[in-house]
Write a structure and sequence with these properties.
By secondary structure, the protein is α+β, with helices and mostly antiparallel strands. Helix content is 32%, strand content 30%. The protein contains three helices and six strands. A hairpin with a 4-residue loop joins strand 2 and strand 3. Helix 1 packs across helix 2. The chain is globular and about 60 Å long. The chain starts with 16 loop residues before the first strand and ends with a helix.
Length: 122
C-alpha cells in the first residue's frame, strides 16, 4: 500500500480570517478567558444559530487574554465580523456577574492585533 501526502490547500481556497479584539466591562475581574469565552460563544450561538456559527468559524484564542485590561482575542471569518460584533451585545452576564462585552478592533494579523489592542509584544 502506497502512502501519499495530502496536497496543501491553495491560498485562494483557504478561509480568510480576522482577529477581533474584545473587552469585558464589569465590576468583577475575570482571571481567565475560559468563562468569558463560554459566555461569548453562547451569545453568538443564540444570535447566529448553529449554521451561522459554522459559517463564521468563530475560534476563541484563550491564551491571548490580558487580565489587567480584561481584553482578549477571537478569530472569525472575514465575511462575518459584523455578525460577531452584533452578537457581543447579547452577553449580559458572565459566571452570574453582570458584564458587558464590546469590540475594541479587528485586524487580519494576530501579532498586529496583540500589539495594537492588548499592548503585548508577540
Amino acid at each position: 500500500m502506497v502512502k501519499s501526502k495530502i496536497k496543501p490547500l491553495l491560498p485562494s481556497l483557504r478561509e480568510k480570517k480576522r482577529y477581533l479584539a474584545y473587552e469585558v466591562i464589569s465590576g468583577y475581574r475575570f482571571n481567565d478567558a475560559v468563562h468569558v469565552s463560554k459566555a461569548i460563544l453562547d451569545a453568538a450561538n443564540d444570535f447566529l444559530g448553529t449554521l451561522g456559527m459554522a459559517k463564521a468559524g468563530v475560534l476563541m484564542i484563550n491564551d491571548k487574554w490580558n487580565e489587567s485590561m480584561q481584553r482578549g482575542i477571537m478569530r472569525v471569518n472575514h465575511k462575518h465580523v459584523n455578525d460577531l460584533k452584533a452578537s457581543l451585545i447579547f452577553v449580559k452576564n458572565i459566571e452570574g456577574k453582570d458584564a458587558v462585552v464590546k469590540s475594541v478592533g479587528a485586524s487580519g494579523i494576530l501579532r498586529k492585533t496583540q500589539q495594537k489592542y492588548l499592548n503585548q509584544a508577540a
